[in-house]
Amino acid sequence: MTPQHAQLAAEQQALLQALWMRDSQQASELLLPLAAGPETFTRRGMACYRANGLALAQRALPAAYPVLAQLIGGDSFAALAADFWQQHPPQRGDIAQWGAALPAFVGQSPQLADLPWLADLATVEWALHQVATAADVAPDLASFVLLGTTDPATLALVPAAPLHCIASAWPV
After folding, report:
1. 73-126: per-residue pLDDT in tens?
2. What is the model's pTM?
3. How many angstroms separate the CA atoms of 66 and 118, rounded?
4. How far apart are CA 113 and CA 126, in angstroms?
5. Closest-CA residue to 63 (of 7, 112, 130)
6. Helix orientation angle between 24-31 and 3-19, rounded to the nearest 10 degrees
7. Burial of 70 (C-beta count, 10 Å sphere; 0-12/13-18/19+)
8. How far apart are CA 61 and CA 110, in angstroms?
9. Which of 29, 40, 64, 81 makes the best surface tag, with the fewest CB within 10 Å?
């Protein structure tokens, strides 16, 4: 790796680290040595990045967890999304694939401890989200011929991925 690439990689890592810091002042301080422009631009730019990230989190999670968002309420879910964004930042560029850890996060939340079934509800919603966003699977047309030519007792149903089987003590 060239020195320029190493420097760019270090700057990108610092930006990512600053994005998910809880303290915006500390986040700005981390980036000041790397900034080429005036300090005020760096601070405002960092504030914009952080605000955009939180707004994105607060829009993306309700898309995957609409029932959970409705049950908790808009303001409470927005706060939950912001906390989740801080503690479980996206690991991929596709924000629609972010949120898999939310059921466990909800299950460990002291504020939601009196609603223990919410974590299982979130598990169901994430499974539905994965199924809804999965690529279509082409049917195996040749296997349909087997239905007319083979003893049904010898056939097995092989469901297409993603298939989820969820066990819950709650009627979710």
Report:
1. 999 999 999 999 989 988 888 888 999 999 999 999 999 999 999 999 999 999
2. 0.78
3. 12
4. 20
5. 130
6. 170
7. exposed
8. 20
9. 40
